[in-house]
Design brief:
alpha/beta, nine-stranded mixed beta sheet, 7 helices
Length: 237
């Protein structure tokens, strides 16, 4: 079966691992994502994953608890490593070879990020999970996704969200919001649509990496997108 995208970067939020929980990790969500990713590997698509840490700790909220911003950001990066370890375990339980890669050196549990090695893993059919963000404070995991997608020459970034694409306004607040099937980088910027933070978005724009925003809770969407169906919203030049 043919696929439209040979190499993808899947961006998952930490919150996507919570399921119906208020925080932490719902094991059923790990099993769900592992099964979906395994389908893509079976089609021959190379899969890299960047996962957030908001289900455990969010750096931007650290100031409310008296934690310095930089320290809070590093705590958030460590949260993404925990999520990465959990997803790696679920994938390996499903029979998928994975490599957990960390932008912060922690050799007992993850490989350091070396671009050529990461690409080699992908070429060998291993899922590469990029954790610890960019390794630097003040950058989100969206920025890490855009950066890693650029470095590994990904065909597309698939950004999983709770809604089924990009709307003219927040569809959860405004029932009259209009969904876009396709939209340009320039229009996203001019309308101030919150696809990704501006740093991440600029990296994608400058490196001509399309972004597809889709509802990750529909378990068939990921496979359908890779096979070329029009799902969610495509952002491109």
């Amino acid at each position: 079966m043919s696929v439209k995208y040979k190499r993808i970067l899947l961006k998952l939020s930490g919150e996507s691992l919570m399921g119906d929980k208020q925080y932490g990790i719902d094991p059923s969500m790990l099993v769900n994502y592992a099964a979906q990713i395994k389908q893509l590997i079976g089609l021959g698509t190379e899969v890299a994953v960047v996962i957030g840490g908001g289900n455990i700790f969010r750096g931007l909220q650290a100031a409310d608890s008296g934690i310095e911003r930089v320290q809070g950001d590093y705590m958030g990066m460590l949260a993404t490593v925990i999520n990465g370890m959990a997803l790696q375990s679920a994938l390996e339980e499903a029979g998928v070879f994975t490599r957990l890669v960390s932008a912060i050196q922690m050799q007992q549990i993850a490989e350091p990020y070396i671009r050529r090695r990461a690409i080699r893993h992908l070429e060998k059919g291993r899922v590469v999970i990029f954790s610890a963000g960019t390794g630097s404070p003040y950058f989100t995991t969206d920025s890490a996704a855009a950066l890693r997608a650029s470095e590994i020459d990904a065909d597309v970034i698939l950004k999983g969200t709770r809604v089924d694409g990009i709307y003219s306004a927040d569809p959860e607040k405004n029932p009259d919001a209009v969904k876009y099937d396709r939209i340009s980088f320039a229009k996203v910027i001019s309308q101030g649509l919150g696809v990704m933070d501006m740093t991440a978005f600029t990296i994608c724009k400058e490196n001509n990496i399309p972004i597809i925003v889709f509802n990750v809770n529909n378990r068939k969407n990921l496979l359908r997108i890779v096979q070329g169906e029009t799902i969610g919203t495509l952002v491109e030049a």
